[in-house]
Task: structure prediction
Amino acid sequence: NIGADPNIHFEGIPAIVSASAGGNAKVVKLLLDHGARYDVCGLGGETPLMAAKEGKHIDVELVLRAAGESK
Result:
């Protein structure tokens, strides 16, 4: 742990939403493992799970559901 914030936003978009939309399950898991919240929303109101579903990233959906995300 180098003190990085897993809940960081870039241009208003939470890192976990960006990683979910991009289909990067490893990054999503890493963020969750380091305390990222899965109940955040992007600029358009999309949750990480919504972003993963929109991109048809089933592996990301599974990671988020395992963490407790359901919306």
Summary: The two ends are 29 Å apart (CA to CA). Residues 23 and 57 are 5 Å apart (CA to CA). The beta strands are 9-10, 13-14.
